């Protein structure tokens, strides 16, 4: 008999859906598997006010194929100039559910990000007062800090002081990639949680660099040493309510990845659940997959869990070499591999 796993329909607590033609091409992949997703605001130009975020939400809803059941949860892009009143108004009116902190120049689409968290202190205090989550890209951008150390240094310099000074602020440490981040989240109070991507559970930095440079394994924060991957796998499968699913699916056209200066980002949406469940099976933790994928995120965000169910079957699926996203060719995570679980709907 086919082995099956049925769980409440999951949500993706961190995704890049892009805009325009590519949005139309990538959105069905996320909407097929997830009931809701936290949509990143790092478009060009970034989504820095209520009107822009509301219009982007309408474009996402318009791009959703008929019959698909999916709710985008929108986010605001913080800049040095963000107005605390605009943040509070958009949160109260349900325009967005969280705000994203990109340190300026840390990653794709972060040029308008925050140059120093001191500059958004009034915004953060207001968010703490109204219970609005802060979503953090946790890397320093100091040229003197090695790229593999940027997350750990961010904890020391920025995140630990912030959490100490504003303990009421709800913080999601996004796409954690290090043992240091896991320990920090575990050692913090209930207002601090983290998302974990499929790629950081599957690959270490060798996948990017051994045998040739492999741009489709490059994302930010960059994959680290094996000991960090093992710490992330232990955290994700531990049953702790502090860790939940966030794919960070970040599509880029194949030519933008395979370039002298390739973009950061891994497109994992098409086989996201298949990728995650493989890790839980390997770790002997299939019984904890539902908490990670479908329960911990809503609990942290204060949202109801989904009532619908989805089923994964132990049937092999072949991941294609490329996916046509409405005219843009994109290489998915696990391209050319066979995965042992299939999303059955
Ligand atoms: O690899 C990444 N890609 N990391 C990010 O933080 C941004 C993302 C993107 O938008 O492409
Ligand atoms: Zn991201």
Strand order of the largest sheet: 2-3-4-5-6-7-8-9
Structural class: alpha/beta
> How much is the average pLDDT?
98
The percent range for strand residues is 15-25%
- End-to-end gap: 18 Å
Radius of gyration: 19 Å
SS summary, helix count:
12
**Helix proportion range:** 25-40%
Uncertain regions: pLDDT < 50 for 5+ in a row?
Answer: none
Q: Which cofactors or ions or other ligands sit in this model?
A: (4S)-2,6-dioxohexahydropyrimidine-4-carboxylic acid, zinc ion
**Biggest sheet, in brief?**
8 strands, parallel
Q: Give the strand tally.
A: 15
- Tell me the overall shape: globular
Order of helices and strands: EEHEHEHEHEHEHEHHHEHHHEEEEEE
Provide structural commentary.
- The chain is of the alpha/beta class.
- It contains twelve helices and 15 strands.
- It has helices spanning 20-33, 50-63, 84-92, 121-130, 150-165, 179-187, 198-202, 206-209, 226-236, 254-257, 272-282, 289-301, and strands spanning 4-8, 12-15, 36-39, 71-77, 98-101, 134-136, 171-173, 192-196, 243-245, 309-313, 317-318, 323-325, 328-330, 338-339, 342-343.
- The strands form four sheets. The chain has an eight-stranded parallel beta sheet with strand order 2-3-4-5-6-7-8-9.
- Helix 4 links the parallel strand 5 and strand 6.
- Helix 3 (84-92) runs parallel beside helix 4 (121-130).
- The longest helix is centred in the middle third of the chain and has 16 residues, at 150-165.
- The model has no long low-confidence stretch (mean pLDDT 98).
- It binds (4S)-2,6-dioxohexahydropyrimidine-4-carboxylic acid and zinc ion (ZN).
- Zinc ion binds next to loops.
């Amino acid at each position: 008999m086919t082995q099956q796993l049925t769980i409440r329909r999951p949500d993706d607590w961190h995704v890049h859906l892009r805009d325009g033609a590519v949005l139309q091409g990538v959105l069905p992949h996320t909407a097929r598997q997830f009931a809701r997703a936290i949509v990143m605001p790092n478009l060009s130009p970034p989504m820095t006010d209520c009107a822009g975020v509301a219009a982007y939400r309408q474009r996402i809803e318009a791009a959703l194929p008929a019959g698909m059941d999916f709710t985008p949860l929108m986010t605001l892009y913080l800049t040095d100039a963000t107005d605390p009143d605009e943040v509070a108004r958009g949160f109260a009116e349900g325009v967005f559910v969280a705000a994203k902190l990109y340190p300026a120049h840390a990653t794709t689409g972060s040029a308008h990000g925050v140059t120093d968290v001191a500059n958004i202190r009034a915004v953060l205090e207001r968010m703490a007062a109204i219970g609005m989550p802060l979503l953090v890209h946790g890397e320093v951008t100091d040229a003197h800090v090695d790229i593999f150390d940027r997350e750990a240094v961010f904890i020391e310099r920025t995140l630990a002081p912030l959490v100490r000074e504003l303990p009421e602020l709800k913080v999601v440490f996004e796409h954690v990639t290090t043992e240091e981040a896991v320990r920090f989240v575990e050692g913090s109070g209930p207002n601090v949680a983290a998302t974990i991507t499929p790629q950081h559970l599957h690959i270490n930095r060798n996948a990017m660099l051994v045998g040739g440079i492999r741009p489709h394994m490059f994302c930010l924060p960059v994959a680290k040493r094996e000991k960090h991957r093992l710490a992330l796998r232990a955290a994700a499968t531990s049953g702790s309510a502090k860790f939940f699913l966030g794919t960070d699916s970040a599509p880029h056209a194949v030519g933008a990845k395979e370039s002298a200066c390739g973009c950061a980002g891994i497109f994992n949406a098409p086989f996201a659940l298949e990728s995650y469940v493989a890790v839980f099976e390997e770790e002997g933790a299939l019984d904890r997959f539902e908490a990670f994928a479908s329960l911990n995120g809503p609990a942290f965000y204060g949202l109801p869990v989904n009532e619908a169910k989805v089923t994964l079957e132990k049937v092999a699926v072949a991941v294609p070499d490329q996916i046509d996203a409405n005219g843009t060719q994109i290489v998915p995570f696990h391209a050319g591999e066979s995965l042992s679980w299939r999303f059955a709907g």
